[in-house]
Give the backbone structure.
Amino acid sequence: MILPDDPKYAVKKVHVYVREIVDNELGFKQVSLSCPAKTKVYLFVSNEKMIVGCLVAESIKQAFRVLSEPGAVPSSGQDALQHHRAWRCSTEPEPAICGISRIWVFGPKRRKGIARHMVDTVRSTFMYGCYLSTNEIAFSDPTPDGKLFATKYCQTPNFLVYNFIYNN
């Protein structure tokens, strides 16, 4: 975990890494962190000493619940297409503590539990002495794969989201 108070060279290196590799793969072009002083960066380092996962978390106050499609009945044939569709979220804010603005795993290492492990770590370390529930964390504008991950991780398609660019 890299904190804002860590040595400047470490913070700078992580932010350059995040912007050049993670942001590029996730499709964030020239988007800086909304409040670097409230940001924690988690890196997953493999046994081969390679960074294969990165999660950027920040303090937030509110988030919005993703709404289910009216009349949508999940079926195995539609699941593959369902997470690529546009989605809606509530206009009523809900309290939240931790926003996950980015979560990325190196392609060949995906589907091995790395993202789940990183989110579990965030939930247990983000706020000292507290284990956050899935109703206290939110994901920023997830990609289709991110939406699928958040749905499985939170065990509901109605997980919380927030906009990391305009977060207060």
